[in-house]
Amino acid sequence: MNVIEKIAAKAVSRVSVMAGWTQSRFAERTELAHILCYHTIIPDESARAGWSAPHAVTVSAFEQQMSMLAELRCVRRLDRVADQLANGLFNDGPSVSITFDDGLADNVMLALPILQRYGLAATFFLTTGIMDRGDLFPNDKIRILRDAHQRGRLKMSLHPVCERLLTQPGYYKATSLNEYREQLDELWAAAHVRVDPSAIEACRVMRWDEARLLRDAGMEVGAHTVNHVILSRESNDVRQFEIVESIRRVRAEMRRDRVPFAYPNGQPTDFGEFDMGVLADMKIPYAVTTDAGPNHSESNPLALRRHCIGIHHDISSLWTALAE
Ligand SMILES: [Zn+2]
User: In the sheet where 287-288 sits, what is the strand order?
Assistant: First the structure.
């Protein structure tokens, strides 16, 4: 064994010791219900593209994660887990539930076949207005335009709002959609022919007939607002509309009354009592956040916590999240 092989062997053994420790810690915590939050599954070759999102997971990483979870037989569909938690009947954990936010077409094209191969069920939260318009997400447009801008492809003067969107990564999350929507749409209309076309295809939002394929494959379908606004940045009228209308639309298209909800961006400061009150009035069974951590029988069913999985997660960091 040469020096490099020795170092590699040591690293592998450290990872497996770590994985063994985290796995046994996970198995011991039988009172915990974990929920994983995925967004977009991308082909492996897109991982290094300038427009790819930090919350993307490659096909091969997703397959590896699903294979591991299937082997552990710990995956349960979230509606059943949420019911058990709410009724104090959650006693055969730990469990892991799989969720997807946003409603991107890759969930159907790339993730669904992998879930089916391993016999796993998941929950998909759809952004109904963006689906109805066949549009792209504002944050995807911003990332794609930013990539083209950085590569000198835009070759046009930018409105100050767009300049800010493309050069200050945190700006759009701190701002109401109405403050930049018009300018972003104008820039997109003028510039989308200059961006990487594979980015537009990768960020495509699913159609309703594709959403029905999920339902027919035994997956659960929920709502994620109409326009993916961060609720706490909006007026009460807008918040009410975004929640009620997205749930109404999912109920009508899926022909299901029971529709769960996911808060866009989902951090504790991104939603509040007002939104939970609207959901309670609509008899929504549960709602999920992106506040990191596991759930138990005392968890608020309208603010369940999730572990967000992204491009930087490998099997070992997934275990670290599940063992926290
Ligand atoms: Zn989202």
Answer: 287-288, 261-262, 220-223, 122-126, 95-102, 33-38, 307-308
